[in-house]
């Protein structure tokens, strides 16, 4: 008898009919003789509905209150799932972050898990009761409700699997796993049966919205095997696991496209030590995440300083950077919303030199200009003009022969 | 500086616009220099929406899960109210039953309050923060969420006022107080400025839906002055307070109509000791509340046994009673959905004999047949055929000269 954690996303819980169907999946797993613990997101659209209500009342709702508001979405779906399971003759009990408790720090709207008490869950499991945990939510040591950020239910599920030492954490979602590229952009995209935590981390970080990045970090830390499955009838699925020798070690596993970033350039900055710090520290204070950074080689004592950041933060960042630019007597600040970031990810890169060159050549052959480059051990990313984004994905997918396996 | 508890019902919180307006009322009270603690119901329609979702999944949702589901309604409106208050520059913090805690027994869907901890509330008030408490909900000693029954937010508010020793508990609702009769039935109905707890209890028990009956019991127990006000601009209001000598001591304060009951009769019951117990105890076990009971005088060793009960319980009650009727060899069981109960309520009755006679005469003068009668110290109720209900209210309103004050 294994213990399986099953997490269901909002699109799998859109209506009572969906909930009943998911309850059937859970009951079937239990009837096969396995123990099941369940984690649910809010019903589809519910989080946005609640956010809209809050926005109607205040452009900047206090974070504590917004978290208490949003947590109702998962509370409702956990109760409804327990009701649906009961009606199928499967004993079930819902649990909130506050009830377990799932303890977090006090960073409302993006809280981090500090501790998860499993006493109530173990007790339910021993009594043959399926615990249904409201995802996405936790509680601080002073009893305030927190949320874990968009996609936070994935992280709840992995934390639960780690704490209960489950054999697998199944993420049931509206896609049937991970592909070599977004099939909507690249029809030749191939489904992947297995991928390493490392690769999944890079893909999630690049905006492939299959899993919340923190859930993958947590799964890697506690070596929880993840299984991404579709709730909508597909038989395909993708395992996200520790890299091992048996793993098909593709040079490049996938190509991703990220359109969520914008670019800010500070032109003709006097090239003195500490300039990067002067420009970026106000952004750090404003909790704006900077992604790629380039500082050109100095010429005549001046340099250009360019970086990317989330589009939503551009107006505020521009304001902050323009203030600094005046102070340091730079020439001007240029903002560019019109960019895309295309990336190739693969564990095999570590042992295969020449991947970057192959990538740059493929883009150059189509006259796509590369504006910025950044690399990690298993990833190469290029910023290009937005309109070439989809084309670049298809070119690179072809260049690395991903349709047929590397 | 007084402490005022203000409770707002769902119709006062129907939309973000309504919530913003209520927030204005609260902020204005605070700006006058009083301390305010707020209790909110769910937004209008929300509880029914949630109940419908549960019903779609199961005809009999487990009570623990249904309570956790329904509690989200008040949790959301408390957070939204705190957000709205913040946006008006009024510091506010929402609190759930689970957070305070507001401790109840484990009778899900109709839990009774055992204890209310005021530590967090006092702390907020001392810091100049308006506490916004989610009404209707509590928590058991084991941490399960409970609800206090329909209208339970009134009871939450009175409990809060009692625990905080507030000067007044204001109930802001969609009516502007208590009338001598339902103005929709009786256009001559007169607004009452003041009414005693006792009278309000009888009126609430008779289905005048201004206040939950338990909130009035609690207010009477702790001598909390209640003020029923409209959220919709009327300047009228009704005080519900301890009866005192200054109170206009009307013989009859109001006439009410209750159509929520049905009648069951067991015909030709052998008249033996214990018959009433035999018939009614299965209903008590099924938690069906019986209201009026009549046992006719015995004739030839047989009697007829008649009682009223909520219409919704009639099918189940009929089944239970028919089973008993066969056992005790009664002739038959007759059910009647087609009744109404008209009542006259007034503290002055205690010292004025002849009220009942005046009531019976007024009904007889219009040829309205009285099927059952019950009385308390300050109330006389008659069951009549349903179609005469509204007419009876108008006749009695006139007979007791309520339009002009008794």
Describe the structure in brief.
The structure is a homodimer. The first copy, chain A, is of the alpha/beta class and about 400 residues long.
Structure description:
Two copies of one chain form a homodimer. By secondary structure, chain A is an alpha/beta fold. Chain A has a domain at 3-174: Acetylglutamate kinase-like (Carbamate kinase), CATH 3.40.1160. The first copy, chain A, contains eleven helices and 22 strands. In chain A, the strands form six sheets. In chain A, strands 3-6-2-1-9-13-14-12 form an eight-stranded mixed sheet, sandwiched between helices. Chain A has a four-stranded antiparallel sheet with strand order 15-20-22-21, sandwiched between helices. In chain A, strands 17-18-16-19 form a four-stranded antiparallel sheet, covered by helices on one side. In chain A, α2 (46-57) runs antiparallel to α3, α5 (152-164) runs parallel beside α7 and α8 runs antiparallel to α9. The longest helix of chain A is centred in the N-terminal third of the chain and has 25 residues, at 63-87. Chain A binds chain B through residues 16, 19-20, 50, 53-54, 56-58, 61-62, 64-66, 68-69, 71-72, 75-76, 78-80, 82-84, 86-87, 92-94, 96, 98-99, 143, and chain B through 16, 19-20, 50, 53-54, 56-58, 61-62, 64-66, 68-69, 71-72, 75-76, 78-80, 82-84, 86-87, 92-94, 96, 98-99, 143.
């Amino acid at each position: 008898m294994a213990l399986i954690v099953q997490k269901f996303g909002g699109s799998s819980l859109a209506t009572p009919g969906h909930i009943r169907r998911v309850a059937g999946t859970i009951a079937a797993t239990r009837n096969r003789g396995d123990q099941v613990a369940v984690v649910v997101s809010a019903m589809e659209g519910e989080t946005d509905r609640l956010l809209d209500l809050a926005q109607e009342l205040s452009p900047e709702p206090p974070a504590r209150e917004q978290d208490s508001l949003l947590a109702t979405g998962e509370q409702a779906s956990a109760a409804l799932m327990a009701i649906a399971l009961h009606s199928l003759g499967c004993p079930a009990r819902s649990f909130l972050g506050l009830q377990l408790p799932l303890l977090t720090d006090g960073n409302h709207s993006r809280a981090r898990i500090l501790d998860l008490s499993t006493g109530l869950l173990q007790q339910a499991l021993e009594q043959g009761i399926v615990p249904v945990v409201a995802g996405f939510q936790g509680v601080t040591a002073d009893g305030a409700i927190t949320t874990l950020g968009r996609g936070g239910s994935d992280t709840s599920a992995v934390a639960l699997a780690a704490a209960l030492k489950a054999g697998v954490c199944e993420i049931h979602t509206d896609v049937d796993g991970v592909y070599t590229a977004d099939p909507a952009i690249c029809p030749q995209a191939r489904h992947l049966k297995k991928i390493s935590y490392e690769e999944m981390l890079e893909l999630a970080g690049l905006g492939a919205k299959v899993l919340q990045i923190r859930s993958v970090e947590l799964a890697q830390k506690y070596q929880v095997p993840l299984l991404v499955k579709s709730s909508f009838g597909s038989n395909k699925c993708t395992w996200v696991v520790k890299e091992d020798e048996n793993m098909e070690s593709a040079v490049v596993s996938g190509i991703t496209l990220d359109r969520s970033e914008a670019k800010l350039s500070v032109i003709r900055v006097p090239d003195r030590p500490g300039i990067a710090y002067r420009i970026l520290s106000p952004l750090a204070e404003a909790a704006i995440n900077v992604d790629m950074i380039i500082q050109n080689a100095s010429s005549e004592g001046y340099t250009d300083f360019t970086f990317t950041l989330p589009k939503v933060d551009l107006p505020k960042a521009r304001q902050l950077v323009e203030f600094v630019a005046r102070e340091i007597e730079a020439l001007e600040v240029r903002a560019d919303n019109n960019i895309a970031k295309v990336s190739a990810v693969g564990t095999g890169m570590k042992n295969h030199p020449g991947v970057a060159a192959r990538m740059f050549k493929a883009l150059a052959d189509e006259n796509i200009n590369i504006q910025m480059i950044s690399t990690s051990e298993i990833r190469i990313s290029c910023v290009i003009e937005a309109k070439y984004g989809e084309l670049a994905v298809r070119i690179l997918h072809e260049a690395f022969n991903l349709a047929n396996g590397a």
